[in-house]
Amino acid sequence: MAKAELTVAVIGAGAITGHHFSAVAAVEGLRACAVADLNKERVEAAAAQYGISAYLDYREMIRRERPDIVAIALPHYLHKEAALFAASHGCHMMLEKPMALSVAECDEIIQAAQLGKSRILVGHTQHYMAENIQAKFMIDSGLIGDLVMIHDIRHTYYFQNSRPDWFLEKMRSGGGILANLGTHSIDKIQWLTGSRVRKVSTSISHYGSRGDVEGSGLLYLELENGMPAAIVQGGYVGAARNETEIIGTKGMLMLKTGDSLWLSTGGPYVRVEVPHSASPFELQYKDLLQAISSGGETGCPPSYGRDIIAILEKVYASAVSGKEQYVERA
Ligand SMILES: NC(=O)c1ccc[n+]([C@@H]2O[C@H](COP(=O)([O-])OP(=O)(O)OC[C@H]3O[C@@H](n4cnc5c(N)ncnc54)[C@H](O)[C@@H]3O)[C@@H](O)[C@H]2O)c1
To answer: CATH number for the 6-126+280-300 domain, one of 3.40.50.720, 1.20.120.450, 3.40.50.2000, 2.40.110.10?
Structure first.
C-alpha cells in the first residue's frame, strides 16, 4: 500500500514562498494543500499557481485544513504567534529563520512544540547547500589540516526599494542585515566547524536610507574550540560578495555560497567539483519528513534556532556596550 502523503499549508505568500512550494512538489510523501496571506492578490495568485486553497486568515486555514505541516514564512515578529497556534493544533513546522525575535520567544515556541508533539525544522538553509555540504565533508576529512580561523564576508545592498518595510524596522524584524543575513553566517561557521560561538565582540553602523536597523556589522567571534572567526557584513551600495574563507594548517577553502567552492593546498585556488544535490529547501523538507516518521530531531531543531538567537542577542549587546559578550547556554 502506498504511504499516505502529509499535507503542507504555507503561511505567507511573499518572496520565499515559491521555494517552499517547489520543494514540497519535489519531495515524495508531501502535498501542498493551502496558503494564507493577508494580501488578497498575492494569496490568490499563489493558490492559483499551485492549485490549492487560499485563506486570508491563517488560523482559519489551520482549523479547516488540519495540515500535517505548517510552513511559516512570515515577518519575524509573527513567527512566535503562528508557531504557537500551529503547535496548539498539533502541526509540525517548517519555521523560517531567524526563529523568533528573542530567546524568550524561542523558549515559548519550544515549550508549545513539546506540548503539541510538533517536530520543527528552523530554516537555516546553509546546512543544506551543495557547496557547503562539500566544504564540510572536506574539512571533516582533514584535507586542510586543523582549522585555524574563518572569515566570512557578505556585501549586498540591503535598503533597496523592493525590500518590504518590516525588514527595516527593528520592532518587526529583530534587526537589520545581521539579524537577517548575519544569522546565516553565524550558522554557517558553527556548522562547518562543528563548534559553537562562545564570545562575541561587535561593531555596527546605522546609515541606511530607510528604517531604523543596522546596515553593517563587523563581528569578532571566538568558538568553544578556541578558534577565532570574523564576519563582515555590509548593506550599503557597493559590489555584492558572499564568501567564506576557511583557513587550516594544510590548506584553505573558499566558499562562494550558492555558487562554487575553491581549494588551495599551496598556490592559487582551484575550483572544486561539487556533486549535484537536491535544492536546499527540498533537503530541508526531507529532513523534516524523516524526523516526523522517526520521532527524532531535524538537523536544525528549535534548540539550535534558539542558540542562533542567543548569539544574535549578544551581538547587539556587544554593539551597545562596546564590550565583548559571552553566550550562555541552557
Ligand atoms: N532561508 C532563506 O534563505 C530565506 C530567504 C528569504 C527569506 N527568508 C525568511 O522567510 C521569511 C519571510 O520572508 P519573505 O522575504 O518571504 O518576506 P515577505 O515580506 O516577502 O513575505 C511575508 C508575507 O507575509 C504576509 N503576512 C504578513 N502578516 C501576515 C499575517 N498576519 N497573516 C498572513 N500573512 C501575513 C505578507 O503579506 C507577505 O506576503 C522571513 O523569516 C525571512 O527571514 C528565508
So the answer is: 3.40.50.720
